[in-house]
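yo, Xaa-Pro aminopeptidase is done. seq:
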Amino acid sequence: MFTANACATTSQAFNESEYTPTQGRVITSANEFSVLQHRDRIAPENAMLNERLETLLPRLMAEADLDMWLVINREYAEDPVYFSLVPQPTFAARRTTMLIFNKLEDGSVERLSVNTYPLGGPYESAWSGGDLDEQWAALAELIVEKNPERIGINVSKHWPEADGLTQGMHNRLAEVLPSNLQNRLVPAEDLVVRWLETRTQAELDVYAHAVGLARGVIAEAFSAKVITPGATTTDDVAWYLRHRFEELQLPVWFMPYVTFQREGIECAADAPFCSTNTGVIQRGDVLHTDVGICYLKMCTDTQEMAYVLKNHENDVPEGLKSALATGNRWQDILTGSFVTGRSGNEILAATRTESERQGILSSTYTHPIGFFGHAPGPTIGMWDNQGETPVNGDWPLYPNTAHSIEGNIKQAIPEWDNQTVQIMLEQSSYFDGERVLYLAGRQTQWHLIR
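structure:
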């Protein structure tokens, strides 16, 4: 285990004076990006859904060796995967909604619904109207007619996103199916994870825009337009972020938060997080924020750092510049460990080994993103567990997946009498099978509040 002082004396191992991080991008405002009105979001969202169902789902069902996939849920208890499968505008599963994906002999997948209220395209209604008993009978009749060998249902011990079939619905399904078909029900967890984690090119195009919006609002918040040193509180800034996203009609998936580190408030080497202080922001403070929004179904997760200049300062102290460069270098070590087929645990182990070799005191807790801010796929460390994560950490890395490059480094700052500062970074990225690309660049320069 490296100590804070050890990190301070050896963190130059990667020759930071000659290190120039790539993919850095400065975004100053969300006004640099357009935002579609809700009505105008329907067409592109449905186009992306249709493309996924036509081109992606058949391949993933074949990989999962499933002949049929059932997504059965009801209002107020929607399956987590449901909203990634239905056209917009959809706000709930009306009464009981049944989606049936049936693989045909040519490998294509027909999309059927057994619903009181038909969904319309891209689904063909196999039954509508009638009462609930008739609906379940119609589903059983359809399954008998199709006679699939392996029927995927959304039950899972380890993946909450793949565990959307409630016990009551599971029991009812077993009641209506003949015994020979009951034995063909299998967990669809592999299919669900792959469906949720895989990104299409059309999604990536809009994803970069969504991440740019998130970074732009952070830049606005971390400026003198919002922060008056000695008067503005961290909560004031957090609520600015919340209200600004609301103004842009961008839903947040968690409450933004803002914290500070300050000279004289010690950061212990073994503390998981050091930027936990809240209250009035003062000159000389190091600020941190964490925000997450969703736009056109793509969710972001972003953490960035800012510095509040003292009256006599025109720039960030060199020690803080060095610490941010170390954070960028840690990101490079992590993303350089991304290799198709490697598990999350293997990527974490490689990152830790190389970070320690270079004298960087780091913690890695990176996760997939997409339809959810915390999406399924390979877990690469946990903030409270830098060892192996069973099951989720064993999941392999696939191409065409998005990841939130999240973690932190600690480094002593000479200008603060060698007090340790924690640099906490999180940037949304995309793995194309060969390299990691940041969707809207990454923070390589400090936000400055004058």
